[in-house]
Write a structure and sequence with these properties.
alpha+beta; Ribosomal Protein L25, Chain P; 2 domains; 17 strands; 26% strand; peptidoglycan lytic exotransglycosylase; RlpA-like_sf
């Protein structure tokens, strides 16, 4: 990273230069005043999640001064506002923040006027490096595929609703050390057993249960729609409906691009979505086994209004929202991201917001950039694969609580 980009990243790293003295010792993240209603007297207050060992070990404050404006601040603020209801009530699986930590920032975000975005981020947040800020960025998009609401010639690939017997079990309900972890399966007798795999579902495990939400025209496009987690269905009468994620069968995700490379069918560096699709179409006899090597299966529901909807329960914003690993990055948190757009080769330095997750998005600073709908976004997402540098922005009150800084209370922008 050249010096100019380092300075840009420093500024985006916010860092607290609006008020008072700011000492930033090394430690970990967030705090503020609870915004959720007080629990009923009979409901015990839940203990905050502990900071995960991996996240704790990788944190360091960023004692960098602000330099210049923050790229993408206006769009990031709009996205951050959408995240606030979730931030103020949900547990942070990394344990780095608590719901109340976000109250001051969310209150300030609600009243920040156009032109105040830069002041808002500088006054409310402190930059933190997770795993030295080094990571990797891929991309995803909102696909549009041909489909029918009924099975008919040319539309034979089922897209399934969530089965009623698919059960999610939050393990934290049984042991505090397992908070944030979930297993999925179905009940058989008195046991919870794994749910049907992709291969078993392809062989008919769900047939006859009326779970077909729609029927796709192309099996390979339907597969990639699952990987994206949501998309648009173009019906034979020209109507467009939007569908989104409504569960997963609990099986581990396996990247078929990596599998094709390992088997010598594709070259490393040439296994993007376009190349994978081309290989599948050219090898129809081998393709089913390759697809079934990924046992993970996604279930869908019809979406109304804005979309697609991310893991925060709000519509994600093109080139602003990212998917991240919630074990390291609090969902809803702003991030300053520096990477390269692989298809164009253009550098990208921008403020973004973590509003989604993904089965393949695991580890510190592992990002999936939401690049929007349409063919251009599909091409960009399919090609995206680049190192990234990022800073996690945590609320100033939280940084004080965790002794990252010592200064005056946050000021309204």
């Amino acid at each position: 990273m050249n010096m100019r980009n380092r300075l840009a990243l420093a500024s985006l790293l916010l860092l607290a230069a609006c008020a008072g003295r700011q000492d930033r010792p090394v430690t970990a993240p967030p705090a503020a005043t609870p915004a959720t209603p007080a629990p009923l007297p009979t409901t015990p207050k839940p203990e905050p999640l502990p900071v995960t060992r991996a996240a704790q070990a990788s944190l360091a404050a960023l004692p960098l001064p602000p330099v210049g404006p923050l790229p993408g601040a206006a769009a990031a603020l709009a996205a951050f506002r959408k995240s606030c209801p979730g931030l103020l009530r949900r547990e942070d699986l990394s344990g780095l923040t608590q719901p109340g930590d976000w109250q001051a920032a969310c209150t300030a975000a609600a009243s920040a006027a156009p032109g105040q975005e830069y002041a808002f981020f500088h006054s409310q947040f402190v930059g933190v490096a997770v795993a030295e800020g080094k990571g990797f960025a891929t991309g995803y998009y909102e696909p549009e595929i041909a489909a029918s609401l009924t099975q008919q010639p040319g539309y034979q690939v089922p897209l399934y609703r969530r089965p009623a017997d698919l059960i999610d079990v939050p393990l934290g309900d049984f042991a505090p050390s397992l908070k944030g972890r979930t297993v999925r399966g179905r009940v058989e007798g008195n046991r919870l057993v794994p749910y049907a795999s992709r291969a078993q579902i392809a062989a008919g495990a769900l047939v006859g249960r009326g779970l077909e939400l729609a029927w796709a025209a192309d099996a390979y496009e339907a597969f990639f729609l699952e990987i994206q987690g949501s998309g648009r269905l173009r019906l034979p009468d020209g109507r467009i409906i939007r569908i989104g994620y409504d569960g997963q069968n609990g099986r581990d995700y396996v990247a078929i691009g990596r599998l094709l490379i390992e088997q010598g069918k594709l070259e490393k560096g040439k296994a993007g979505m376009a190349e994978i699709l081309a290989w599948l179409r050219a090898h129809p006899d081998e393709a089913p086994a390759i697809l079934n090597a990924n046992p993970s299966k996604i279930f869908f529901r019809e979406l109304k209004g804005e979309g697609p909807v991310g893991a925060m329960g709000v519509a994600v914003t093109p080139r602003v929202s990212v998917a991240a690993d919630p074990a390291y990055i609090p969902l809803g948190a702003p991030l300053l991201v520096e990477t390269t757009l692989s298809r164009s080769g253009q550098p990208l330095v921008q403020l973004m917001v973590a509003q989604d997750t993904g089965g393949a998005i695991k580890g510190a600073n592992r990002l999936d950039l939401f690049l929007g709908p349409g063919a251009e976004a599909a091409a960009d997402a399919g090609a995206q694969s680049a190192p990234a540098t990022l800073a996690l922005l945590i609320p100033r009150a939280a940084a004080q609580r965790l002794k990252l800084i010592q200064d005056a209370p946050p000021q309204r922008p």
